[in-house]
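Protein: Related to GTP cyclohydrolase II
Species: Rhynchosporium graminicola
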Amino acid sequence: MSTPPSDQNDLLKEVLEAVKALTINQTLLTSQVDAISGRVNVLSGLKEVRDAAGGESASKSSVKRIEPQALHESPSSDDIVPQSPSLPATEIGSLAGPSSPSTALEHLRKPSTAGGTSRIILTTYPSQSGINPLPMDWGHKDPQERGPVVVSRTQTTIRRRNAIGAHGGSYSIYYALAVASNEIAVDHRPDFTNTEPAANIGPFSQWADKKKIVSMDPLGHLAPWLFKDIIDKENVDIRPTIAITRAHMKLPELEESVRAGRLVPDGKVCLNDSGELAVTKFAVEPVWYLPGVAERFGIDEGTLRRALFEHTGGSYPELITRGDIKVFLPPIGGLTVYCFGDPAKMSDEKVRLALRVHDECNGSDVFGSDICTCRPYLIYGIEEAVKEAQKGGSGVVIYFRKEGRALGEVTKYLVYNARKRGLDRASEYFKRTENIAGVKDMRFQALMPDILHWLGIKKIDRMLSMSNMKHDAIVGQGIPIHERVELPESWIPADSRVEIDAKITAGYFTTGHRMTEEELAAVKGRSWEDPIEKSSYQTTPLT
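Structure follows.
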């Protein structure tokens, strides 16, 4: 006897509801497992960092207090740092503005929404009453002895600051706007629940070498957990400067790479026929150890501090008045690491590593401009990194925010105008930039290798870059490069010949012909009015 249709429908509905419930439960279970995995990563990271620091010091749960007088009297290289005698070192709580402010400036003295003082603290001094910075011994292998990076100027933290600047790099200005417009409470504290790193990294011996890492905080990914006692017990605002997550990457060229046979889906790194990739991402904000940065550039710390103060509009007076503070969070962009394959293999000297170090070019990387080789080289670097990971090695692409050779997009477009309104010849390529900016390049690759040290990288098997500056900076930091891989000719857009030929003549790596000055003068770019030829790079399989 058959089941009536109505009963069948009811049964089907029950089955569907049960399947939905199972799906929801599975999703929740997966989320819970991921959350547990994140906490395990943090616990593992904390244990390994503490184990690396050694026995008894690892058990310390609070940071020592440094007395202001001790700071004031201790002899150090601070003598070379220019000091300002313009204001007395009074108690921080008594600092105030003019006793009779003008009506136009009265609003500046309004108290903050957090109930803090209305007095504007323009700067501080080492010997000032109330100033008690948390210790910062950059390069110490014990995180509790080294101390956290503390930069907040909130009411509960300003006395404990051991760093100059602000979190967020260039985005710190938007934070200020959010505070000014009451979009965020000035005393807001982040809830770090479930934000733990999605992959474990380090610790490596390079983390405790103050000459190898000077432009980022090696403990930046663990800060809220390493220094939780200080946050909870002393009410100090401590934030991470590194975050690690997992993601999928999908670019239109990668689908073509699969169709052309250059990439083969394996379900692990290259996930499917659309060229979707599995990737682990590391976001890093800059944290500068000023003595180390100065040494890297061959200048004294005082000269560096003075230049940073003067050429940021005097925005950071503590660069001058606080010679005891050695850490600076500059208002610049950071970097992102894209790791293909197992992140643990990046530091494994027994497996091969393919690396692309790429400096930002928004016009090409995002919007496909063909005046340069930036996007083609980026895509090529990703492809080669993926292939290395699929062969059991590691593939890494590091993306630095250094738009327009760190000259900025406005300067870059002015250079483009000068090129296209004149004779856009390769022989004049660098001169156009120098005429406007006064310099060819401000990317300063001297700080770039720090991220390689942080990742534990000790050698590079395939360097997917032609830049002599990047090569020399990496090798100069003791990391050998076994093979340099240039961008294949078939990937070079026609209008970017001016750029690439000029760079090769200036010292970029090539296994091919290096042009003479006469040949270089004959390389001419497309004018605005010229018809566009097939400017995208070839997609035929490469050997």
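Remarks: Confidence is low (pLDDT under 50) at residues 56-90, 93-105, 538-543.
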